Every structure is written in C-alpha cells, then in structure tokens.
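Quick one, tokens below:
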C-alpha cells in the first residue's frame, strides 16, 4: 500500500539529478593514446616517447608522420606530395576566388574522399595518401584564386618542399624548406585537442578517414584553435613598435581582448613547440623584419599577463612563433590556418588508426537542464 502525498506537497522532480560536469571537458579523460604525451606543467611534448626538440633538430616531417602512423623511427622515410584527382581539381576550380583557404581545404578533402575507396578500418596507406594529397590541393587553390595554373607534384621533393614548389613554382632554398619542415613537425600531433577529438569521434562511428579529416579541419577553423598565427601578425602590426607594446597590451586586455599566441588549455609552462620554433625563426635566412619586435613584445605581454592573471599562468604558445616562420617561408597570412591543418594531417590520421584499432563508439552523457516533463499548452 502506498500513501499518496498531500495535495500541497512540492512535486518531486521526475527527471534524474545532474552529475558533475566539466565545461569544455577540461580535466576529463576521454581516451587513451600512445601517440603523444603533453606535460603541461613542465612544458614537455613527446611523440611516441621522443622529445619534440630532438625531432625538430634531427627529424623530417616524413619520418615523424611515419613514426606516428607505425610507431617506428626511420629517418630515411620519404613523403612526396600526390596528384590531385580530376574531379577534385574541378571542384577547386569551381570555388569562388575569395573562398577562405580552410573552406577550400575542407572541401578538397571531402571531394577527395568521394574519389577513393576508403574501406574500414583505416590503414597507413590511406593516411599516407590523404596526407600527401592535401598540400597539392591547398597549393592548387592558392594559385587558382590568383588566376594561375596549378603545378603538378614533383615526386623528387618531400612534402613541405613540394608544397612550397607547387605554391610558388620555385624550388625553395634548403634553409626555407627546413624551416617549414620544422613547423610541420611541431604541428604534426598534439594529443586530444578539439580537432583530433573530432577526428576520433568521426572514426568511432566507422566512418572513413577523409570524413574524419574534413571534420577535423572544420574544427580547426575556429580562431581559438587554428586561427591564431595570422591574428598574431595582425596584432603585431597593430602594436607597431616595441615602445608602444606595453600600452597596446594593456589597452587590449582592458577591452577584454585575448592576446593571440598566448595561453593554452594544457600548457602552464612555456610551450616547447614555441621554444623550438623560436630557434628556427631566429636561424632563418629570410626572417621577417618584425621578428625582433615580436621577441620584445613577447616579454612585455608575458609580464602584463602575469600581472593581470596571477591565478592562471599564461605563457607563449606555438602560434606566436609559427607566425614569423610561416611569414619567413613566404606564405600569405590567410594560408596559415590551412597550412597548420596540412601539418596536423599526420596526427589526425594516426589518431584515426589508433581509434579504429581499439574502437568503441564515442557517445558521452549530458546533463539535461531543460524543463520538467509537462503537457503541451491547450
Ligand atoms: N589573452 C588574454 N587573456 C587570456 C588569454 C590570452 N591569450 N588566454 C586566456 N586568458 C584569460 C581569459 O580571459 C580567462 O580569464 P577570464 O576568466 O578573467 O576571462 C583566463 O585566462 C582563462 O581562460 P580560458 O579561456 O578559460 O582558458 P582556456 O583553457 O579555455 O583557453 C585558449 C585556451 C588557447 C583558447 C586561450 O588561452 C586563448 O584564447 N588564447 C588566444 C588564442 C590562441 O593563441 N590560440 C592558439 C592556441 S595553441
């Protein structure tokens, strides 16, 4: 026998009580990976155990991509850029010349997927083919939008050199090629960031690697993820000179703006990728003339950020020194985010392989915060 509650008793909620939720999933463990290890407190980044600084100094992007895909280190690996299938070139030609390069790249990857057999599970060959295709597609779009013909890949060149050649029609000098290769190495992989997580969610549904990478590019397009280096260039242009740096930084923070190239969800120490790229930038033959100003503005920004946010260490991130390296190799700032995406292809596809090897559909829970069950009015 049950007692019925008195008529004026508060009604019990009929929906389950919320469980703890971490906005932005900060601190939530959402998987396991053997691809990279980030020690945010100490500012360390390892790819399959190898230090990022050593990989930049002694490795190539081809060797690093192979390491991520297979777990094996082979310094002699080669990875030339690949041909663009005819239907994909038609799609690139159909895009408006003012299309954003990230939109063009995402569209090209999607179109490429429609021309390939990409059976489940994804393979190293699929990862390699897509990683080799995308630089050709971005270079072709960059030429088409300015009325130039695309340039066929040169199989004797490796991926980053080939990309610059297909972009400009000239074979870059070794220093320039090396600087872009170093950038691609530091951009290749970074654990469970938003775009990589996207790629893993897509892969977990047993979708194909082109869909995973197209989705990842869409995620990386956001300024909080991959859009920062071109904004670093804009901000430095606004700063203008070291004498104005402090005033500009204080005004920007007072307006509630964020300083691009600073802060990170995981790193509390100096981003080791920024340290590696700063070295590359300083050693470049054709460094932008504002590099020295950037180094001095960094000191001012770090000091003012520490003063404004004593509770949260905000340090330089990879994007800050990506900006001078990418400018120095001759890329237009609006190509920076898409170039970052090219570099990250190795990591995204390696995560697709890792997800598929031990797959379970990614489907988290959510706390419902809407109205209680109720009757439709009338
Ligand atoms: N400039 C100024 N303040 C910053 C800042 C920055 N670059 N990054 C973080 N902060 C401040 C925020 O304003 C916030 O303070 P508030 O709560 O008083 O507003 C506090 O630090 C915490 O920021 P939060 O956004 O919660 O940290 P996050 O972990 O979500 O942010 C980033 C990580 C990267 C999105 C963030 O640092 C950022 O926007 N940086 C600039 C963009 C950038 O360089 N992106 C490339 C990342 S590799």
């Amino acid at each position: 026998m049950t007692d019925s509650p008195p008529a004026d008793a508060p009604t019990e909620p009929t929906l389950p009580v919320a469980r703890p939720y971490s906005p932005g999933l900060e601190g939530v463990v959402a998987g396991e990976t053997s691809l990279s290890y980030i020690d945010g407190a100490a500012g360390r980044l390892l790819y399959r155990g190898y230090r990022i600084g050593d990989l930049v100094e002694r490795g190539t992007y081809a060797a690093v991509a192979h390491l991520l895909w297979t777990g094996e280190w082979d310094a002699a690996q080669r990875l030339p850029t690949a041909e663009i299938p005819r239907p994909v070139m038609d799609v690139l030609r159909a895009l408006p010349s003012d299309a954003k390069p990230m939109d063009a790249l995402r569209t090209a990857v999607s179109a490429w997927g429609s021309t390939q057999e990409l059976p489940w599970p994804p393979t190293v060959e699929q990862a390699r083919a897509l990683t080799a295709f995308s630089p050709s597609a971005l270079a072709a779009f960059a030429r088409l939008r300015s009325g130039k013909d695309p340039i066929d890949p040169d199989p004797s060149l490796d991926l980053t050199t080939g990309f610059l050649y297909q972009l400009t029609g000239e074979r870059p000098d070794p220093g320039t090629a090396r600087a872009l290769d170093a950038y691609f190495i530091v951009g290749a992989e970074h654990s469970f960031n938003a775009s990589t997580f996207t790629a893993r969610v897509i892969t977990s549904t047993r979708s194909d690697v082109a869909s995973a990478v197209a989705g990842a590019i869409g995620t990386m397009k956001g300024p909080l993820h991959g859009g920062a280096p071109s904004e670093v260039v804009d901000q430095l242009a606004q700063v203008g000179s070291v004498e104005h740096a402090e005033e500009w930084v204080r005004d920007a923070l007072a307006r509630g703006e964020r300083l691009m190239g600073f802060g990170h969800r995981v790193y509390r120490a100096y981003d080791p990728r920024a340290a590696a790229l700063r070295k590359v930038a300083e050693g470049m033959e054709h460094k932008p003339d504002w590099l020295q100003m950037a180094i001095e503005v960094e000191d001012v920004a770090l000091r003012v950020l520490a003063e404004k946010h004593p509770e949260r260490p905000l340090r330089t991130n990879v994007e800050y020194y990506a900006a001078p390296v990418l400018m120095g190799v001759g890329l237009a700032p609006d190509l920076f985010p898409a170039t970052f995406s090219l570099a990250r292809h190795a990591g995204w596809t390696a995560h697709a392989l890792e997800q598929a090897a031990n797959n379970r559909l990614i489907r988290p829970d959510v706390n419902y915060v809407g109205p209680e069950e109720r009757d439709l009015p009338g």
